[in-house]
Specification:
Layout lengths: L9 H12 L6 E5 L6 H13 L13 H7 L6 E4 L14 H10 L5 H8 L10 H12 L8 E6 L6 H12 L5 E7 L7 H5 L2 E4 L5 H12 L3 H11 L3 H10 L6 H14 L2 H11 L4 H23 L9 H10 L8 H16 L4 H16 L3
Helix pairs in contact: 1-2, 2-3, 6-7, 9-10, 10-11, 12-13, 12-14, 12-17, 13-17, 14-16, 16-17
């Protein structure tokens, strides 16, 4: 994986490349940020640049023997550690082929996605002290190619206390030419002594323009679709991919939202009941995403009303609707609106009757839209 394969994060890429070129490579680095920001892919691209035999100014060459090995995740000096379900295995070795398959398929995934791959019962995975011993064993081996050894530890916040303490000792006395890259989604959970040993790199949300370009080029989306998904994803590639899987041409989330608000504003009970009936048929995951989308659009209304139009992140068709609809969302009703959406999501997640739930949303929206 090259840096060009990681969406966005251009400033961080430049800093990492500059550090390698100047031979200023920290032995322990912590990449932290939501999984959808691309920390895992960035760590692999960084390792590839370190190993590359013909480094270019802005990226690895992608064609040398080291790059080809890392592209297949088969470089002998690149190691991975990740959480496992302890009843299946206390170390990651038995799951390495699954890991390679998942990363090559898509390096943007969550801990829950990984759990579904390795355990049909979806039990909580952790990184145990046995795994930490395995990390130590791998790093005591001589480098196969005489250069650096890189250990990427994914989701280090899932380490138990015994593992954390043992890893701390390894970080305090690192092997020569060894690089640790900890890829964390929530570094606040890590013990402070580990964080203090690492150079921390905070990943930011992926730029909307980068997501839009990625979606257009990879999935051949039109301008309208790519703008809508990019704005809703809020800089999170995983969220964009989920929306892409759920979205279609005939029943977009924006059409559902507009239908809800128009029928509720007109107080047309027949239309409201028909809308609720239709929403009850679309499937639970799409229903949950719709509620998230509602919160997104309501926030954009407030931004448009009280902030700058430049900060409104919607597509052209969504903006056309908001130009007329946004004045009805204000300080008098936004809190109740958001509370009703949050409550609906909570109930839907607990298997509430969707027809009753969305009927209630219709009447709540009708009341709030006409609130003085």
């Amino acid at each position: 994986m090259q840096f060009k394969d990681v969406i966005g994060q251009d400033n961080i890429k430049e800093k990492l490349i500059h550090g390698v070129q100047k031979n200023k490579i920290s032995h322990a680095q912590l990449f932290t940020g939501d999984a959808g920001y691309g920390a895992l892919g960035l760590s692999i691209a960084y390792a590839q640049y370190v190993f590359c035999l013909d480094k270019k100014k802005n990226d690895s060459c992608g064609t040398c023997s080291s790059c080809l090995k890392i592209n297949e995740l088969q470089h002998p000096d690149l190691h991975f550690s990740f959480p496992t379900v302890q009843s299946e295995s206390t170390t990651s070795n038995p799951f390495l082929s699954h890991w390679i398959g998942q990363v090559k398929k898509n390096p943007y995934f969550t801990l829950f996605d990984w759990t579904q791959v390795i355990d049909i019962k979806e039990r909580k995975p952790i990184i145990s002290v046995d795994e930490c011993r395995e990390i130590q064993r791998k790093l005591t081996l001589t480098s196969y190619e005489g250069g650096y050894k890189v250990m990427i530890i994914w989701m280090p916040e899932q380490m138990n206390l015994s593992c954390s303490n043992k890893l701390l000792k390894i970080l305090e006395e690192p092997q020569d030419k060894t690089i640790f890259i900890l890829v964390s989604q929530d570094d606040e959970i890590l013990i402070d002594t580990i964080k203090s040993r690492c150079q921390t790199i905070h990943l930011n949300r992926v730029d909307n323009a980068a997501i839009k370009l990625h979606l257009k080029s990879k999935y051949q989306l039109d301008q309208e679709q790519s703008e809508s998904i990019a704005s809703f994803s809020e800089g999170n590639l995983i969220k964009a991919y989920e929306l892409l899987d759920l979205d279609d041409d005939d029943n977009t989330l924006s059409e559902h939202f507009m239908g809800l608000m128009r029928s509720s504003y007109k107080k047309n009970v027949v239309e409201m009941m028909n809308w609720a009936e239709g929403m009850a048929q679309i499937g639970k995951e799409r229903q949950k995403f719709f509620l998230i989308y509602c919160s997104h659009m309501l926030r954009q209304c407030i931004i448009k009303n009280y902030g700058s139009i430049d900060h409104v992140k919607v597509s052209e068709s969504e903006l056309s609707f908001l130009n007329k609809f946004a004045p009805f969302i204000n300080g008098n009703n936004i809190r109740e609106f958001m509370k009703s959406i949050d409550e609906a999501y909570y109930q839907l997640d607990r298997n509430a009757n969707p027809k009753i739930l969305f009927t209630l949303i219709c009447f709540q929206s009708m009341r709030l839209l006409h609130k003085a």
